[in-house]
């Protein structure tokens, strides 16, 4: 398959009759009214932005289009015909493909098998002809930015690469509509750029793209029209002309919002809490050294696959280093498991909230309690849990982080993505570790909550915590951090602070290694 | 999500809420409905205090072993060794009492400790050597059968079993409540408290819910899994001891068949009150359904073949009602 | 090394009577200078066939099939037949190419059932714990049916027990049956087609303090004898499986000597009825029965 | 992640790569090591073409039923009904031939279709009524046992089984290869091709690997799961038929014990070549290990108790080597 075959040759203009019209859609889950009244229409060849706060109903609307949920009320017309999207197969048959917010890949399979998941495959004598498929898929995979060999297992791949696989799958299907639910949340700048180019190409050739993101700059940059959801209703629809970030923010939040809260930086203490010396785990982390001070927010930037997550896991005892040493508050620190690290005073907010952060079937209260169990028990001899303490802890945290939930007993798997993220962070607020590592803390978090989380991180630092923040979003780190390390190919290539700390400096440093060939 | 909901009418939110509640209580309703039907069919023999006490007494052993198994499955593992282990424990406890002339309490304590040890071995093989729990516990169970045979040469230990040991399970407590029931209530009560009301229980549930997340939240996952196996092993030991006391002998493979009964109870229980999660109270209800089903069908005098058919159907219907209600409620 | 090999395939090497039989067979084999190899098929007929095939493969001198009916070891008999190895059964019946059998066990039921009927005065209710899949148990059930046909005032409730699980099944069936047969109304008896299900039922009787029900087993295993001594079981028929095993192995020499001229035969050893009155004397005479 | 790697020396990447390869082949190495040991212990009787054919012949039935079970577990479900189903099938096929005088091929086709139907029922209960597969298949299995009793009153069907039916499993093919082996090779070959080489197989693997992802990718998860149960049911039917032919009778509960053997084979196989995934080739190797273990211990003439101990140990060691190698490689 070549590029031209993916993209249907028809060239539509935004003035053509709508491809999909959804009217007055409502949907409740149990007692929760996820969608109250949503209407949206998608024109052939347009890039349609969809924005809204966490829990506004974006993903639910998308799941309805995908045939995964069925609306309680309202109608969907496709090409002017009222339709009932019965299931995912029906959606595919209608020419829609989806990149859902929850990653869809099968861990035991290869990259190519995952790309072809659910896609009709050519066969010879009933046997799948994989070499033919590989020939067709390879150029698309390259264009999307998948560097791993197609026959590699997806097990060792990063989140970002798994996202690219999902994107690649949508391209391989010849679809009239591609829906992307926060595709860039896990991508770093360079992958994002590649994706934008692809989206523009798709649009040019008449494919409709429905694009959900909390990164408003992307939305403004990319979209022809933007729909805004708030509390389960579609409240606004803008076209690109004359749309400003300010307008968009107001519409999302329902009121004005001062986004420019530059965190106040306290006088940084010189007391080193965590000292990392020459830590390696080849080939992903190569001899990394740095010191983390009390009250400091240290950022780690870089491209996807630079080894930041792996570094965090090494510090946290989740993986074992091949070399190097660490000290924590002056004492040798060599955790043999995360539980040892937690006892020593560390905390981690992992990158993958659903897979690594939460027990999805359990309540918000349960999940918030997990790192704080010692403080929730009463009784000297039998460590019985005190429901009162649990409830108190949960109420406080829910309030502090403005977690949108029906109550503390709601299963956390039913919260929207951003609110799930808040629960993982909330777990550590109460425990107050000496060192808190946050891996992509604002992934999928809406613009309002993002500000709150940033504020919170600063507060934690001010109260004496040492905070390590990993982020692939170059915009995030300069505002938030006192100091930023940039990693590339497993090594720290640059330390930025003070005036030198800027978005551009981080991006530039990220490519350092690739330019020089050999890391420092 | 069910295909059933696609067809035709949509359910109102009220109907869905109702279905959700129905789903939680469907297995319990099923139990009561079953008791009601049997009471109508055999009004003289079935619904008597005596019969209910008997059923509970009889079911106590299965409940204890199933209660232990519940902990193993909560932490996300299967323990297939319990039946074989209980058989071995029955032989060893009688052996210790009859051949080694140990006082009964000492023998009981030793055997329960042995149960814990077997659990420890299972847990070690699963967590440290990382053998899938199906293979690990099947392997250990097979080895235990070999030990049972080696210890007893296959001959039941009968002669000289003291009456006091038989009284362990045949005796009665205050108000004439059989000892077995007392032990069962104590064991299940302790397990329930452990899982639902202690911080250790939260860790146990977290490990079962998402081991990776539990690990990163600072929980020692291996330790908790081993604990699950140890509890399961100790409960198997208790059941083995009580069975030997009830039979008056230590007999190889006497308890093997508890394996399937315990699994049925545990999985039946997972449809009770909660959404497909394993829990101690559910296991209790599951074991009750199985015990009353067997007893009621027998008293009614159903022919053997129809007893099997009904028993199978009871399992499916009890869980099916609840699952169907739930999937409609969430559609 | 070159001693002839006697292959024994047991249905359950952990069942008391099987063990006694194996002991008898082993003793005879030692006397004859044979070596013995026992495989426990754990109730699995397919495993039994595999084990017989393995013995045939090994060039065994003879193979004993314990309790698997000849009708379920077709493939094994086939393999042994082509290797000219005689197969004898204990409780597996005479048929196909089986050379000899004993322990058929069916007739053992007669004295027990007759005792039971007599003690019930020909009326009342019986709970019969049966196991039709087993050849021996099925024969015993047939014997019981024939006798009871003469007593219209006796009602029989039959329940099938499972292997494994016979203790528990015996207990549960007894529980249910007792619930609809309260004490004092009529003569009650529980009959097991072998001892173990009856022993399971005794557990229920004792848990309910029901001493009005007479319990009968067959085989006379140590636990049954113990229960008779203590008054919980009324009668059983002791199967002298040790002697059965011993005699069968001794007969193997004749079978091998006769070669193709051998006529298949059943060589039964008489069973002994044991009741409360005779149990002491019996144990004195057969101390090995309770070991 | 293993605590074992904590102690002392760190492994070099080369050593890790080596361990990774070792892990893939450890079960197969274990099989060969076992064969070698038995060959040394019983040099005359064990390592002969005749004995190996014999072992493969014996193992064929277990391999077929385990091959079917493999599909059920690949799609992420357990099928506990297979043993009971195979017993019923054995009774029905002999019944159809003996009582209803049907030609053998017709009887075989009817029974295999019945197996597919049972699989369909299992699949329907699991996917549409959403009953956990443990309960659903245990329930269906219990019901089938009832049917087996109803059909035969528990009495084996023996008289009048035609020689031609026995020849189904006792007969030999070209070069004297036993029919059972031929059937097994055809069935496993077909299953392997289905799973590994067709696009349906991709869907099967995807459903098992991550059902949610498969659903999002537009795969009809329910259909695939039902397919898994149907294949499992058909293989159970084949095994039941061949077993009846091998035994020369249709006997209730004759095949019940295949359940555990099949599970052991399938889970043993999941450690073979792949990283804890179920696959047809692995199941084949797993069944071989079990069969050679049984045969070798028999031929060597180990005492009964040690046969159990070794059989259990073989399971654990075969998987343990592989798991340990893997976890060290990934440490
Ligand atoms: N299966 C479910 N059961 C119960 N409530 C649900 C379920 N799925 C979604 N919800 C609720 O519906 C609301 C909308 O969720 P949705 O995932 O559509 O939000 P979103 O706009 O995609 O948010 P985010 O930006 O955080 O991804 C939330 O309040 C969520 O808690
Ligand atoms: N050997 C491995 N096997 C499996 N997963 C691994 C392995 N090494 C690393 N990973 C996972 O791959 C992911 C990416 O790791 P890495 O640290 O290289 O990237 P990163 O800089 O954090 O980039 P990203 O933005 O993708 O998270 C992490 O989730 C890590 O746990
Ligand atoms: Mg969302
Ligand atoms: Mg990362």
UniProtKB/TrEMBL annotation, chain A:
The keyword Magnesium is annotated on this UniProt entry: no
GO molecular function, one term: ATP binding
Family: Belongs to the ABC transporter superfamily.
Pfam families tied to this protein: ABC_tran
Name recorded for this polypeptide: Ribose transport system ATP-binding protein
Classification via InterPro entries: AAA+_ATPase, ABC_carbohydrate_import_ATPase, ABC_transporter-like_ATP-bd, ABC_transporter-like_CS, P-loop_NTPase
Matching PANTHER family: CARBOHYDRATE TRANSPORT ATP-BINDING PROTEIN MG119-RELATED (PTHR43790), D-ALLOSE IMPORT ATP-BINDING PROTEIN ALSA-RELATED (PTHR43790:SF3)
Recorded superkingdom: Bacteria
Boundaries of every ABC transporter domain copy: 20-256, 268-514
Keywords tagged on the record: ATP-binding, Cell membrane, Membrane, Nucleotide-binding, Repeat, Sugar transport, Translocase, Transport
NAD found in the keyword field: no
SMART domains named in the record: AAA
Organism of derivation: Devosia psychrophila
CDD domains: ABC_Carb_Monos_I (cd03216), ABC_Carb_Monos_II (cd03215)
TrEMBL record, chains B, D:
GO molecular function, one term: transmembrane transporter activity
InterPro entries: ABC_transp_permease
Membrane-related topology note: Multi-pass membrane protein
Segment forming the signal sequence: none
Keywords associated with the record: Cell inner membrane, Cell membrane, Membrane, Transmembrane, Transmembrane helix, Transport
Cellular location(s): Cell membrane
Main location: membrane
Annotated Pfam families: BPD_transp_2
GO CC list: plasma membrane
Transmembrane intervals: 21-43, 55-75, 82-98, 104-126, 133-153, 173-195, 226-245, 257-273, 280-302, 308-329
Function: Part of the ABC transporter complex LsrABCD involved in autoinducer 2 (AI-2) import. Probably responsible for the translocation of the substrate across the membrane.
Description of how the protein assembles with itself and partners: The complex is composed of two ATP-binding proteins (LsrA), two transmembrane proteins (LsrC and LsrD) and a solute-binding protein (LsrB).
Protein name, as recorded: Autoinducer 2 import system permease protein LsrD
Organism: Devosia psychrophila
Taxonomic classification: Bacteria, Pseudomonadati, Pseudomonadota, Alphaproteobacteria, Hyphomicrobiales
